[in-house]
């Protein structure tokens, strides 16, 4: 556990991802608060504050990369902790711990400029669960790039395209569920509670699949 | 004591290791010899709990590696495809490994000095030369002051000085009653480092014994090796 934190803390990529996320959140928060930028969509103009999609995107980069996609270091980790259950438990706890420590720092500036500090607990929960989805995905594919690409492509490309055709399906995607949960969805939405459960289910599915894969397969 | 018995490993249709049995005793340096693709790394990965055996067992002091609670204090290992993220500093790399197995922090300094990286401890690993990277891997293997060392091609990329350093170090390590298993495809190097050798070709053990026994009747270990692995 402590070793896992040291591992994360001493990786430059962690700090870069943190800085980028912080900057993006603050910037988006500022834009939303001042409502200076409006983005044209088919329905006319939408304030950036409603483009929650973009807002959540950096989360994946921040959580999935440093914790789970360790590359060459994966084998070192497994040599040090050969029991696969202990290995994954340490990773999960470390990622949760990192989120709990880092999320307030990342989120507060953005929330404060939007005068929405009250939604911090909900946003932290969303970060935690999304991080688990990304992390589980990273374990499965053993890279950071594929999960990042897929998880970014889903909200940015796929859901806008499918939103009109299959609204029932799109709102179940991890991203859309998160937005529903946070009450910031712009497209077809679930109730906040349903959004939470759907997001939780995604996290459970990805972590579960990662768990099975890690116990079974070779490294 | 390392005991490998009737170990097989298949990857799909490819049999990488085929019914391999041998044991490695303390107090000696045992070489694991074979040409490229013979199955050396695969055997060592199974021994260290990274890959699952298709059948058979590989035990360390009677236990599976995966069942060791703080394995680095019993077995030190150097494997290919395992190392630090290049952006990391050497000292941070060793520190998290030490923490994971409750190894006192002062050991990090000790092993860095031992392998001659004391002055480069704070550098990022990507700035290291091939030889320095290999020394760092050996330092990581020594962190837990283990009784057993398992090294996959430890002299790969080392210059003559580095090779001599590894050789002297391993010989002293074994002379103290500890166990060393190292793989190599470099016969001449092995003839001078190891007391015994296990020779593997195409996934099967083709010979084992002391270096003298293996070389008997041949001009050198190298010619013995070609005779054994091409037969
Ligand atoms: N993960 C894998 N999937 C499929 N085949 C594999 C895998 N790992 C090894 N092999 C195959 O098993 C055989 C043995 O490989 P191994 O790496 O154990 O050889 P080696 O003796 O270490 O060779 P070298 O001296 O080149 O390191 C090779 O033919 C290799 O292609
Ligand atoms: Mg090999």
TrEMBL record, chain A:
<keyword id="KW-0472">Membrane</keyword>
<feature type="transmembrane region" description="Helical">
    <location>
        <begin position="12"/>
        <end position="33"/>
    </location>
</feature>
<feature type="transmembrane region" description="Helical">
    <location>
        <begin position="53"/>
        <end position="71"/>
    </location>
</feature>
<feature type="transmembrane region" description="Helical">
    <location>
        <begin position="124"/>
        <end position="141"/>
    </location>
</feature>
<keyword id="KW-0812">Transmembrane</keyword>
<feature type="transmembrane region" description="Helical">
    <location>
        <begin position="92"/>
        <end position="112"/>
    </location>
</feature>
<keyword id="KW-1133">Transmembrane helix</keyword>
<feature type="transmembrane region" description="Helical">
    <location>
        <begin position="148"/>
        <end position="174"/>
    </location>
</feature>
<protein>
    <submittedName>
        <fullName>ABC-2 type transport system permease protein</fullName>
    </submittedName>
</protein>
<feature type="transmembrane region" description="Helical">
    <location>
        <begin position="194"/>
        <end position="213"/>
    </location>
</feature>
